[in-house]
Each structure stands twice: as structure tokens, then as C-alpha cells.
Amino acid sequence: MCPVSCIPARNRQINNCNLAPDCLGLVDCALQYDGLGSIHVGGQHSRFLSRAPAAAPPRTSTLRSHGIPMDFLKPRYIPMSRRRRIYEGKAKVLYEGPEPGTLIQHFKDDATAFNAKKHQVIDGKGVLNNRISEYVFQHLNDIGVPTHFIRRLNMREQLIREVEIIPLEVVVRNTAAGSLAQRLGIEEGTQLPRSIIEFYYKNDALNDPMVSEEHITAFGWATPQEIDDVMALAIRVNDFLSGLFLGVGIRLVDFKMECGRLWENEMMRIVVADEISPDSCRLWDIKSNEKLDKDRFRRDLGGLLEAYTEVAKRLGIMGENEPPRGTGPVLVKG
User: Fold this and answer.
1) 151 and 197 co-located in one domain
2) 156 neighbors 107 (Cβ within 8 angstroms)
3) How high is the pLDDT of residue 320?
4) What is the span of the domain harbouring residue 178?
């Protein structure tokens, strides 16, 4: 079994990461700055924080060799330059986590299409995807859908559980669009008789070919029981996302998700992994059919950051008058 999570064994590589001084780093305690002028303490919001830990024993500061005192009561940050990079994909980087069985998932600003044949860096995209994916995964956790998500660390990073990724992209389609419309000659926007689940083998060199359950079991990518578990999760996620987006005037046309094996001692269960964001969903405005997803980049429509921002605002993640934040000391280019 692959011991490293969130990446297929065939793609796994371990490198020393390069210096990235603009990263906020990891807060290795319950005190986190969210980049919006607030501090999180155990999941609560406070505009200012001055409270020291209760009944803390007196400690003396220790001087480093250069004479700067070390305050052991302050939260410990782990800069990106000191983390071990586990894997880098087209839109995310995985770093070693603070505890065994955890990883840090960093969202980049890269926009890619057609297996990275088309590529552009869009300042602020990673921040929006991180916030939207956090919102979706937290709600999935709340309704009992198992995921790899633990919590958001800062504007670009999440703490996630280490899972063994099943090398399949699971696509759930509610409306004809994209490759389905092209393959079957169906007019884009046609409502399907029922939701359709498709599987694609994760292999960029082969352009992620569509595969059947027979392929999956024959080549050992997943067992029949695991396929059943993945499909059950896909149906639950589709039901939740369809209702979530419908409530804010957005149609969920289709979406892609990935699953992984989460090992807990000798027990294993299938969980939702990777991300769920406008990068992995087709989202259309119900009234106008305006595209609010990565098709704006694929089809050279422009306005990708504005579309993602609109999704975040409708979900209540961003304030109505809050502009897209792609620059500044927190929202940095990946």
C-alpha cells in the first residue's frame, strides 16, 4: 500500500522545497491569523487577542546566538523553506504536516487546462480555491461525509489527513457539457435523465482516459467494494453540492472529485480528498447560464478571478463589497 497520502504512488516524489519567503507558514497551535484582521482561537473569531494561556508557569526567554530573545509562549511558525515538499501538482503543493498522518496542502495561483498545455498564473486564484474548498469540505464533514480535511491554516493552506489516493477521477454529471456533449452529440445545457458517474484513470501522459469498472478492478486500482463506496460518496456529494449551489442561484452542471484510503490503525475507509472548487466544478448562473468556473479559462472567456469571487460571495465566504484580493502581505502570488 502506498504510505504517502493525497498522491498516487506512481507520481510520488520527495524533494527539498525551495525558499518561498512570502508564505505565511504553519501555526503549530490553536492561534491562527486569517489574513482578514482577525485571529482564530480554537475555531472562534476575535478582532484582538491579548489573553495569555491560563496558569502558565513562568518561563525565561533564551537568547539565540545572535542575541534575539526567544519567546516560547508565542505560536511557532514553520516557514515553507523548512518544510519537506512531498509532491507538487498543477495547482497545489503538498508538504509534510506537523504531526504523523497529516499533510499541508498549499493552493497555487496556476490555472491550467488540457493537461497543462494551457497555463497561466492568475494572482489570487489559489486563495479563492482554498477558501471555497474549505467551505465545502467543512460542510461535508458536518453532515457526516468523510473527507481528508482537518482545518484551514491560512489564506493559502489547509491541514489535511494523509490518505492513499485512488488513481481515479470521479466525474458526476447532471447536465450535458464539455466532453460528454462532444462525445455523444448532445446539445450543451441539456438536462440529463439522471445523474451519471464516470471514471477517468489519472495519468497525464495518457490524457486521463475514461475507464470502466471492469478496467478498474482488472488492473487493481480499486476493489469492487471500494468502487461501491466511491460511488456512494459521489452521490452524497452531488446531492449536497446541488442543493448548496441551487440555494445561491447556481446550477451544478458537473464536478470532479477524488477519493483516498484513510488508514486508522488496521481499519481503512474511503474518504473524499483533493479539493472541490470552481477549478473542479462546472457552475452556471441559473438565470443567465453565465459560466462561473474554469471554463472561463479553458474557452478564453476571461474574468476567471471575478467569477470565482462571485461564487465565494454568494456562498457568504466573502463580503458583498469585498474586492478580489490578489496582492498584499497575505494574498501573495504562489
Assistant:
1) no
2) yes
3) 67
4) 165-314
Query: What cell numbers appear for 151 in the block?
Result: 482545518
Where are the alpha helices (H) located in 84-124, listed in sequence order? none
Residue 330 lies in a domain: no
Length reported for the chain: 334
As given in the structure block, the three cell numbers for residue 310 are 462571485
Write down which residue in 114, 133, 161 finishes a domain. Answer: 161
- What CA–CA distance (Å, rounded) separates 142 from 5? 22
Query: Is the backbone of residue 203 left (phi > 0), alpha (psi -120 to 50) or beta?
Result: beta
The answer to whether 176 and 189 are in contact (CB under 8 A) is yes
Q: Indicate if 77 and 176 belong to the same structural domain.
A: no
CA-wise closest residue to 277 among 122, 91, 87, 95: 91
Amino acid at 199: F
Which residue in 256, 294, 251 sits closest to 272, CA to CA? 256
Q: Does 137 share its domain with 15?
A: yes
pLDDT bracket for residue 283 (50, 70, 90): very high
Q: Which three cell numbers stand for residue 209?
A: 482516459
Q: Which three cell numbers stand for residue 109?
A: 495561483
Same domain, residue pair 204 and 185: yes
CATH of residue 128's domain is 3.30.200.20
Question: At 69, is the secondary structure helix, strand, or coil?
Answer: strand
Q: How confident is the model over 206-242, as pLDDT tens digits?
A: 999 999 999 999 999 999 999 999 999 999 999 999 9
Same domain, 102 and 187: no
pLDDT top residue among 226 and 29: 226
Residues 204 and 218 in one domain: yes
Average pLDDT, the chain: 81
At 114 the pLDDT is 86
Three-state secondary-structure class, residue 63: strand
Identity of the residue numbered 293: D
pLDDT in tens, 245-269: 999 999 999 999 999 999 998 999 9
Q: Is the pTM of this model over 0.70?
A: yes
177 in the same domain as 149: no
